[in-house]
Amino acid sequence: MGRNNTQFFHVVKEQEYDVASILKDVYEALTEKGYNPVNQIVGYIMSGDPTYITSHKNARSLIMKVERDEILEVLFETLIPFLMASIIDKGVNTGDIHHIYKVGGIMIVAAFLGLLAGMAGGRYGAKASTGFAKNLRNAMFDRIQTYSFANIDHFSTAGLVTRLTTDVTNVQNAYQMMLRMMMRAPASMVCAMVMALAINARLASIYLVAVLILGIILFFIIRHATAYFQQAFPKYDALNESVQENVSAIRVVKAYVREEEETSKFKRASKNIYDIFVKAEKNVIWNAPIMMFTVYTCIILISWFGAKMIVVDSLTTGELMSLLAYCMNILMSLMMLSMVFVMISMSMASMRRIAEVLNEKTDIHNPEHPVYEVADGSITFKNVDFSYKKDSAEKVLKDINLEIRSGETIGIIGGTGSAKTSLVNLISRLYDVTDGEILVGGKNVKEYDLEVLRNQVSVVLQKNVLFTGSILDNLRWGDKEATDEECIQACKLACADEFIERFPDKYNTHIEQGGNNVSGGQKQRLCIARALLKKPKILILDDSTSAVDTATDAKIRRAFREEIPDTTKLIIAQRVSSVQDADRIIVMDEGKIHGFGTHDELLASDEIYREVYESQTQGGGDFDENGGEA
Prior knowledge:
Blueprint: H1 3-8, H2 24-30, H3 37-47, H4 59-92, H5 97-145, H6 149-152, H7 157-199, H8 201-232, H9 235-248, H10 250-255, H11 259-284, H12 287-311, H13 317-359, E1 379-386, E2 397-404, E3 409-414, H14 420-425, E4 435-440, E5 443-444, H15 450-456, E6 457-460, E7 469-470, H16 471-475, H17 484-493, H18 497-500, E8 510-511, H19 520-532, E9 538-542, H20 550-563, E10 568-572, E11 584-589, E12 592-597, H21 599-605, H22 607-617
Parallel strand pairs: 3-10, 3-11, 6-9, 9-10
Antiparallel strand pairs: 1-2, 1-4, 4-5, 7-8, 11-12
Helix pairs in contact: 3-13, 4-5, 4-7, 4-13, 5-7, 7-8, 7-9, 7-13, 8-11, 8-12, 8-13, 9-11, 12-13, 17-19, 21-22
């Protein structure tokens, strides 16, 4: 599979079940020349080192047990028709009751041992498939955690959820069936065919013809069904997206009385999946009747020709009964194989979608020899250009040059779409610049260890997110080792202690998912306190006081000025009053710096800033006449 694939999937083999050899028996059927995501998944598993991952089982032991139990089950099942023939020919026909008891007892033991072997094979197969599914989920989740914002932009949230759930389950089911049937069905068919040929080669030739015809028919059924299955699973993204949007915005849905429209939207997404599966099943449904027609035709032909051979004493009654039993074994084995390939065809689309997540290479990664200390909070932009898509001709930021001293408070103001958020996202390497460079503490941000840089450049994003748990749990996202006193002090700086103290449980108050049980302003202040707990050298507030009243906003700014004077503070705001006390203010316009200076300097020299200031002080309002987020 190549060196890159082995490196790429290295995360999987660290998990509990490294099924390094488990797909060896189906690898040749799945691989093709050139790129194939199935090859990457299967190839990685085969290339891994099957060492002990737990104290009880390793991968090679697991595959050997599955293979052993399946073969034993097949051998015992194949033995039963042969023993049945002996009972009929040497027991029933001759009246030898002792022979009937003896061979009948052996049949019971063989059936019981076959049952035990089948149960054991099923147990180990289930254990391997669930372990493999866990490996895939862990590998995908680990990979997602390494994504930059640019990588995340390639996938929808609903799409990632579908890949981690539905797609992995599809692969797991196909994988389990492959483990069981790809060994059992061919072995059963070969053993039954050998026994049938040993009994009577002329009658057994009927099976060969039937298998050939049936194999051709099943090939075309599976081929047509596969095309529909590959269309079906991506449709789950739209279904999950509909559910996610409705549940997360249920208050808006009810406020605008949009329940019927949302229900119709969900039904359309559900019907799309239904229609595709119906088309696929219309092909697959022919599998069983064609199989049964072939089985009964073989039974009729064997009974007809077998009866004639019994009359002329070239075949015994017991041998005919064995041939009929082996007929069912052979053709049912072929049917099991066909179902395996149907499951594989259903999971192919899922495998490709999983491989897309695993194969996505993060745009942002640590340098080979990273710097682990940020000297100070100074920031320098040198000829910086930026676009969200690297091949895009349209740039979001153009020719940005800035010098910000450590400890300065910098206000950033501008209309909707002026790239204020894009500017500050580059400082903590949430995105990388397209051209130019950014220095923090005198060094290029690309030279720093990512964790060190992002701990020293603390960002409170536009969209404030709180997680399920207590207030203290949420605050300690900033510093998991923070004491209660440190958390309280951070909340005082963010003016969050005012409302927390009014809660019955105070700092142990439970926060619901998404912070739905606190107001927008309270959520913003908790997020600011969380960021302060990092004790950063640079603090970025991206319109993070928009839901806070003017008096509280002023308190927060005064606390920052007095309590953390050495921290560089970048404050994005729509209100001029939120930034006019800053050391300097940046005015953004269409991705460029339109003005940079103090409040008084900008009033005198920058037309945009002056117009906004006058409109707001005279009762105008927002920076942008159309409103909206920066």
